Amino acid sequence: MNLPLGFTDSSSDALPLHIVDRAGFAQWRDTQPATTGAWLDAHGFDGAPSSALVIPDADGRAAAAVIGVADALDPFAYAHAPLALPPRAWRLAGRFDAAPLAAVQLGWGLGSYRFSRYKAPLRTPAQLVIEDDASAVFAELAACIRVRDLVNTPTEHMGPDQLEQVVCELCERHGARIEVVSGEDLLTQNFPSIHAVGRASHRAPRLIALYWGNPEHPHVALVGKGVCFDTGGLDIKPADGMRNMKKDMGGAAHAIALAELIMTRRLPVRLTLLVPAVENAIGPDALRPGEVIATRAGISVEIDNTDAEGRVILADALTYAGELQPELILDFATLTGAARIALGPDLPALYSNDDALAQAWLDAGTQLRDPLWRMPLWRPYWRYLASGIADIANSGPSKMGGSITAALYLERFVPAQTPWAHLDVYSWNDADRPGRPAGGEAQALRAAFAMLEARYGAA
């Protein structure tokens, strides 16, 4: 088996790694040799979170190491270790229950990650010895890394066609089927809003669809916003707002990675993945403010702001998902800055028309330390999307409740009887933190899979 970066299955020269917290540090220290205690005291080590210390032998060579953590079930509590310790093999000292062990392994993998497509990392991470079956953890790690890699890749190398290629490769690997509707075919096959947003780019807009699983199993539809770059259209973004807009396909990255995880783990569902993939570009044929566009649902939309394009392309994809009559629809989208103002960068905003579905996702997030926060579908705010000449507008003059109004817009295109949840996700780390390097990030993805696994059962 090819192990992920930061892991080894060879323990021949591995050194022991102790993991402690402040509460248990004194008890652990009392079990150590006097020389080790003196070394710990000399360095002021007390098991503080994100601390690490190499312990020498009598000859000054590394003999062991100890790291400090806070929450034993939080993968990121361990994520500092791979780059804080010397780049050699380490084996866990002591016994671990399944959940803390999984957290250690996942955190180690996340802490070992660096995006290396264009620049070699400055150093290799320390390696953790794997002595058990970690395939489930590695599948989750691969999904998180999939999101990071897709989001970190510049639009030059991650446009709508490259997103299609990624999905095509997943289909080949897992025996799924792919269908793509692109360019002018979007109009003839009734996906007009996807076409409207992407028509100005030299890269053809498209709807990418993956189908997988046993037809007898419950049907789950995943939808991800795939705006591969967002200039804002003719309502152009300022430079600082446009700088990181390669990440505006972060919703698609989450949906693709979740689909891959479902197929890898053979979850007993029938899966549909839908990715409307476009580039919101500026050109002679760019969508203009004030235009009224058609949608697959037959709802006319006045374009108030061309920078509110994500909800426009998702409308056709959600409508199509509803036509397939799934048991459940989940959509992921880097949809609004308003969600970041409300909740900050670490908490994706969850909206749902089904209380049980929302609570199950929230509970999974709490259990796995993969958090999200539920926001209200406050329907009186529909007034902010009123149009004088069309059924609805895609935005409005008020900045009030921007994340809520975007979610309300999406809800309009989901069948009322279908359980649906929408995640307004940032998909990004603004600055380096242990296990969270600046750049693309997977958020509430592990929680989504755990929720689906609890709902439908393991393979």
Describe this structure in words.
It is a single chain. The chain has 2 domains: 7-132, Leucine Aminopeptidase, subunit E, domain 1, CATH 3.40.220.10; 139-456, Zn peptidases (Aminopeptidase), CATH 3.40.630. It contains 15 helices and 20 strands. The longest helix is centred in the N-terminal third of the chain and has 18 residues, at 135-152. It is α/β, with parallel strands linked by helices and 459 residues long. Helix 8 packs antiparallel against helix 11 and helix 10 runs parallel beside helix 15 (445-456). It has helices spanning 22-30, 34-42, 81-84, 98-112, 135-152, 160-174, 185-188, 192-198, 239-242, 250-264, 310-323, 337-343, 355-368, 402-411, 445-456; strands spanning 7-8, 15-20, 52-56, 62-68, 89-92, 127-129, 177-182, 206-212, 219-224, 226-230, 270-280, 292-293, 301-302, 328-333, 349-352, 373-374, 392-393, 420-424, 428-429, 439-440. Strands 7, 8, 9, 10, 11, 14, 15, 16 and 18 form a 9-stranded mixed sheet that branches. Strands 1-6-5-2-4-3 form a 6-stranded mixed sheet, with helices on both faces.
